[in-house]
Structures are given as C-alpha cells and as structure tokens.
C-alpha cells in the first residue's frame, strides 16, 4: 500500500467539544457493550443459512438509528440482502454527507484457527476480538455512536447525514447498484464517505486515495466431447490442456509485462514525484518477502514490488484445471481445460475495453482444433479520489488532530466495488475514511480492532462533522470551501 506523506500543520481544526467529551466518557461502557452485542449477530452474507441473521443485523441497526433520532429509517429490500437507510436533514445551509459501511461479514473458516468463538466477541488488552470487529461492523458502529453523541448532547447534528449500510459487500455488492439506481432522489449529497478501509503498516493514520479495479474472466478450452485415449489419438488431435497452457503463456512475458496488445494504453503512469514518494516509505522488502514466505519477489521489470501492488495493473491465473487429477496415471487427452484469470486495473483502465482486448488476444492465441470461449465473470473500475476536495482536506486535518500524526495517503492495491458505483451512479466526490489497524486479520481467523482506533475514529467522525458544519456557517459553500479548510 504505497502512500505519501502530506504536509503537516496546514489545517485549522475545531477543538473537541467538552460536552461530547463528557458524554463519551460517561457512556464508554455502554458503547462497548453495544459494539459487542452487534458483533454477536452472525451476519454472514455468503451462507444462505445465515439469511435470518443478516436480517436481524439490519433490524438491529434500524432500531439503533430510530432510537438515536434518525428519520426515514428503513430496511430497504433488494434482490439479495437488504440495505439499511436513514437520514437526519435538519441543518439547512450545511453540507450533506452520505456515509457508507457494510454490516455483513465473511464466513469464519477455518474455524479451527480461531482462538475463541468468532461470534462470542470480547475486549482484552485493548483489542476488540470477533468476526466483523474491524471489517466492517466496528466502523459502522462508530458512525452510529458518533451521531448518537452529537444528537444526545445537542439535540442536533452540525450537518446533514444520510446513512447507507449494505448487507452484501462481502459477496460483491450485486444488489446495491440496482438499489442505488432506484433511490437516486434520496441519495443527493455533497460527498460520500466510505468507512471500510484502514491505516498503513505500523498503524499509521492514513486516507485511502486510490483503489485498483478488477476484471475477472474464465477461459474454457474444449477439444472433444469426451476424454480420448492418448495412445489411439495422441498426436492426431489438439490437446485442450496444452492449448490452454500455450494461451496462458502468451498473456505475460518473463519480465512480468502483460503482452495483450493495447493492455496498457489507458494506464495513467505515476509521476516521478509519486514514484519518489513511494520509494521514501518505510518498507522493508526482505521482511515483506519473508512474511509472505516466497523464495523471491517477482515484480514487473522496471518497477519495485511496492509499486507493483498499487500503481501497476496485473494479470494473474487464479485457477487452472482439466484432465486427470488423481493419483497415478491415466493416459488421456482431456476433453476440456479451464482457467480463471483476473486483472487488477489502475486508473484510467476501463474493464470493458480491457476485457475486449483480453478476449481477442486469447482467441488469436487459440490453436485450431479446439473451441475457446472467454467469459467475463465480474468487473470493477479503478477509483482515484480528489485529495484537494474540502471534505478530504477536512478529514486529513481531523485525522491529524485526533491521531497526532499527519496521515499518509494510501494507494490501495485492493478493490472496493461500491467505490466505483458511487462515483459512476451518483457522480459524487468520494472520501475513503477508515480507521482499522492494518494487522486486523480481516477475512481471517482472530479478527480484531484496536479499541484505541475505534474510539479515536469515533472522535474523528464527531470532529469532522463539526468542522464541515462550521465551514458552512463561516460562509463557505460546501463545494468551494477548500481554501478555507487549508487555512
Ligand atoms: Zn469491508
């Protein structure tokens, strides 16, 4: 996750409200109990038997939103798991922020590697341990508690908030796009804040400013209707497994360069300054290699490993199968062979364009005698956010004030499908503000969130809402307040 240091001390931040401080102190125990209660609901989106738990989690959020004073709270039906929506829109003249988090979690396998039961969460040694503690129920919960603190203390929020909480993030957000399209009227906002990201190595405060996109494909190579005897037919027919190996070998050269014509055409190359900043990061390549447990790193020629995980696109075979897989020998020419191939994409690559070039190149590589089909299984566009936007500037300033260190700007190698949906479908500026510690074991056994990150994250959100509200009161419109925020 390459990142850049930003200039410190350039932002004016309002002092933390003593009334909120007192409220947070008074309610700390109840808040943490509520956090654990939320984590106890096993809202695993991938497993059908947990569908009632998903609904229970949605209802739990709905009840909380209603209790703390939000309006239009609704469990919104979709073709899949529901979304939860609510708003508070009584700050005329102040900006409107749409906040996104997700309440579904990953399955718990391998269950044997958990030191404790995944849905019996607890707090120990400053860690909140349990499935969803970090990704993403902890972050959702801190947004609820920040809004509650402001409303309980003052009876109002300093700005307008819309909450949108999804139940299918861990299974590719298939229903969110249609739901957004059907609810555009009530999603108008000055910016979207996605809280589903985290800090840099060493738990350094950070703002994620770019995400790679993704293109997922399958190649099916078919020779004969059934497997053939390799003695009787070997040499006379094309072997689909050999053909697939030939195709895969033709996608990338030994320098790690992707050989699909036009693949790099739309890639925005990082500037010399960006590459310099990445090279300045405290990144230990040998330790990184050792931690992964590989014999050597294999970055694209001309680029460092760190650059390759963030600013360069990739092409990887995710799975490869066909023919005889058992013990011993079976002398056949397989009827078919298959591969899953995916590409991480960087700005400004378009998944559809890349897919067409990929498909055409695979077909060119296909030898006669086999039928080759190329199917697109999924896609997400790469995203880059505008760090000069007033909401991003305000977020950087409060992160620094609350965590005591100028945040890093991270270009994440991963993909958050909803990020590109918000940009494309709502046309809204995006800020990816998340607080999880980088060693949080998200998607893995023993997931945890540092309580300190949760509590400071909560305070960061309170201060951010105050600062964005103050910008409006000071006469700067939400869309033109950049200079005011930068002082
Ligand atoms: Zn997540």
- The CATH architecture term of the largest domain is 3-Layer(aba) Sandwich
- How do the strands line up in the largest sheet? 2-3-7-4-8-18
Biggest pleated sheet: 6 strands, mixed
Rounded to the nearest angstrom, the distance between the terminal CA atoms is 29 Å
- Contiguous helical run count: 15
CATH class type of the largest domain:
Alpha Beta
Approximate helicity band: 25-40%
Bound molecules: zinc ion
Shape from CA axes? elongated
Unreliable parts: 4-10, 477-487
- Return the CATH topology of the largest domain: Aminopeptidase
Question: How does this structure look, described?
Answer:
This protein has two domains: 3-211 and 382-486, 3-Layer(aba) Sandwich (Aminopeptidase), CATH 3.40.630; 213-267 and 313-379, Alpha-Beta Plaits. It contains 15 helices and 19 strands. The strands form five sheets. Strands 2-3-7-4-8-18 form a six-stranded mixed sheet, with helices on both faces. A four-stranded mixed sheet has the order 1-17-9-16. Strands 12-14-10-15 form a four-stranded antiparallel sheet. It is an alpha+beta fold and 487 residues long. Helix 4 packs across helix 14. The radius of gyration is 25 Å and the shape is elongated. The protein binds zinc ion.
Question: How do the strands and helices of this protein lay out in sequence?
Answer:
Blueprint: E1 3-5, H1 18-26, H2 28-39, H3 51-68, E2 71-76, E3 83-88, E4 96-102, E5 122-124, E6 127-129, H4 137-154, E7 160-166, H5 176-182, E8 191-194, E9 206-211, E10 213-222, E11 228-229, H6 230-233, H7 240-249, H8 272-279, H9 285-292, H10 305-308, E12 316-322, E13 332-333, E14 336-345, H11 351-365, E15 371-380, E16 383-384, H12 390-403, E17 408-412, H13 417-426, E18 430-432, E19 448-450, H14 451-473, H15 482-486
Parallel strand pairs: 4-7, 4-8, 8-18, 9-17
Antiparallel strand pairs: 1-17, 2-3, 3-7, 5-6, 6-19, 9-16, 10-14, 10-15, 11-13, 12-14
Helix pairs in contact: 1-4, 2-4, 4-14, 5-13, 12-14
The structure holds zinc ion.
The site of zinc ion has 5 residues, from loops.
């Amino acid at each position: 996750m390459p990142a850049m240091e930003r200039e410190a001390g350039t932002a004016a931040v309002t002092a933390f409200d003593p009334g909120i401080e007192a409220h947070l102190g008074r309610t700390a125990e109840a808040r943490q109990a509520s956090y654990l209660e939320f984590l106890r609901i096993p809202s695993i989106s991938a497993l059908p038997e947990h569908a009632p738990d998903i609904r229970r989690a949605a209802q739990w959020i709905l009840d909380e939103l209603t209790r703390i004073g939000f309006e239009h709270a609704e469990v919104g039906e979709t073709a899949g798991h529901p979304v939860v929506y609510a708003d508070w829109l009584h700050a005329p003249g102040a900006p409107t922020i749409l906040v996104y988090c997700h309440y579904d979690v990953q399955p718990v396998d391998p269950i044997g590697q958990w030191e404790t039961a995944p849905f019996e969460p607890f707090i120990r040694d400053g860690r909140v341990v349990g499935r969803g503690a970090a990704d993403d129920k902890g972050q959702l919960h801190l947004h609820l508690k920040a809004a509650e603190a402001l409303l309980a203390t003052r009876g109002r929020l300093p700005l307008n908030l819309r909450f949108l909480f999804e139940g299918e993030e861990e299974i590719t957000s298939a229903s969110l796009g249609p739901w957004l399209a059907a609810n555009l009227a009530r999603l108008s906002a000055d910016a979207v804040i996605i809280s589903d990201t985290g800090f840099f190595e060493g738990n350094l405060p950070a703002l994620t400013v770019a995400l790679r996109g993704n293109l997922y494909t399958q190649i099916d190579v078919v020779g004969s209707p059934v497997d053939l005897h390799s003695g009787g037919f070997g040499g006379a027919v094309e072997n689909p497994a050999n053909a697939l190996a030939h195709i895969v070998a033709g996608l990338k050269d030994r320098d790690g360069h992707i050989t699909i014509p036009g693949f790099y055409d739309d890639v925005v190359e990082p500037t010399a300054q960006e590459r310099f900043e990445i090279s300045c990061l405290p990144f230990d390549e040998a330790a990184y290699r050792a931690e992964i447990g590989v014999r050597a790193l294999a970055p694209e020629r001309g680029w460092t490993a760190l650059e390759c995980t963030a600013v360069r696109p990739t092409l990887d075979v995710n799975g490869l199968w066909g023919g005889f897989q058992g013990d011993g020998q079976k002398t056949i020419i397989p009827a078919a062979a298959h591969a899953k191939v995916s590409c991480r994409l960087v700005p400004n690559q378009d998944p559809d364009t890349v897919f067409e070039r990929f498909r055409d190149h695979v077909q060119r590589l296909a030898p006669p005698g086999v039928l080759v089909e190329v199917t697109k299984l999924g896609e997400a566009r790469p995203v880059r956010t505008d760090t000069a936007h007033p909401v991003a500037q305000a977020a950087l300033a409060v992160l620094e004030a609350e965590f005591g260190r100028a945040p890093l700007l991270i270009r994440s190698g991963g993909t958050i499908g909803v990020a590109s949906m918000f940009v494309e479908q709502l046309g809204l500026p995006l800020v990816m503000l998340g607080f999880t510690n980088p060693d949080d074991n998200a998607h893995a056994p023993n997931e945890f969130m540092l309580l300190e990150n949760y509590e400071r994250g909560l305070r960061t959100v309170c201060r951010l809402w105050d600062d964005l509200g103050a910008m409006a009161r000071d006469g700067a419109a939400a869309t033109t307040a950049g200079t005011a925020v930068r002082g």
